Amino acid sequence: MGSITERLKVTASGKTVKTYRVYIRRSVNGKEVSKSKVFGTKTEAKDWLRENENDSGLKAIAGATGPTFANLLDAFVLAPPAKGTKFWLPSHIDFWRAELGAMKTGAIDRGTINTCKAKLMVKPATKSTLGGVKDLGKAVTPATVNRYLATLSSVFNFAMQRDIINVHPMKGGAVSKEAESEGRRRILTPAEEEALYSACDASKWAPMRLYLRLCLTTAARKSEVLGLRWDGIDLDRSVAILPKTKNGKARALPLVSDVKAALLEASKVRALNSEFVFFDPKRPTQPKNIDSLWRAVRQRAGLWQDREDVLDHVVLHSTRHTATTKLVRKEKNIARVQAVTGHKTLAMLGRYTHLDTDDAVSLAERALGGT
């Protein structure tokens, strides 16, 4: 069955141009096959539709379904990022390779993807730690499912840009996103930060305050700070180098003056048998496990499960939310903030701009509050 759709496009000069998109979809040997093309005139569109709307033409399309998806993934990973292809994570690529790698790229349709999505929704959630991968004992969250789908969509965008496929199998609602929860939303107040620092001073582990200070001044993740090694600390440049982060890329953490001074003092008495800044005295080749220490800090600070909603509890990731929110409020160039926080895309920082209500109130008062 074929169809012709009119489209109006405004050129850079402001001129409105009408185009005609021809779309053919047919079931051939039990397989859904499609083909489309855009023309400048309706006559050309009708001629193309008449020439191509036959079983033999569609069978040819069905047979030539492009490279295997595994080969496409190899090319995608090596290609420079472009619009629509920038978001992807290695773990996502591994999942889609395992599920779809043997298939021809053009044979992957919405049904195939939705079947994989159903499997993904019951996939055990894991967490990468310095000691290895930890099973969290639950399924991945809807937000994680959507990130996997976003990676897959990037791959198909890549294929579309190179004319490997004519139709993106995930567009037009063919594969729906999962409804996401709001996620953790606790942002520490200055008073809460001071309470935590004071509680750290009373910790039986002396480096606890420095660890918390690094979290709150770098917006780094828990594992990133725990994984800091002395060979990555560059006090001359005031940075700490993370050779590999959650996103698979290196990043430099800025060291503010008091943190830099504290690291300088710590370097003078560093353990010779450990490369980690925050090492475990009992196992110097591993970073310190601070779970029980951090719980004790929150309890002393009066911030242990202090609110009814679990999403409002103070956790270590609250330090990342807090630091990122401060950066967004001070620096309106989100790309600069991204360089510090290491978020994969600018879109991931969008939630923090929504939290920036102080500036919105100030602007409204200045511009609209007068009589």
Structure summary:
With 371 residues, the protein is α+β, with helices and mostly antiparallel strands. Helix content is 44%, strand content 17%. The protein is elongated.
What would you say this structure looks like, in words?
By secondary structure, the protein is an alpha+beta fold. It folds into three domains: 2-63; 69-161, no CATH class; 190-364, Orthogonal Bundle (hpI Integrase, Chain A). The chain has helices at 42-52, 55-63, 69-78, 90-100, 110-120, 142-161, 190-201, 208-218, 222-226, 257-268, 291-300, 317-330, 334-341, 350-355, 357-368; strands at residues 2-10, 16-28, 31-39, 124-129, 132-139, 233-234, 239-242, 251-254, 279-280, 283-287. The strands form four sheets. A three-stranded antiparallel β-sheet has the order 1-2-3. A three-stranded antiparallel β-sheet has the order 6-7-8. A two-stranded antiparallel ribbon has the order 4-5. Strand 2 (16-28) and strand 3 form a beta hairpin. The longest helix has 20 residues, at 142-161. The protein is elongated.
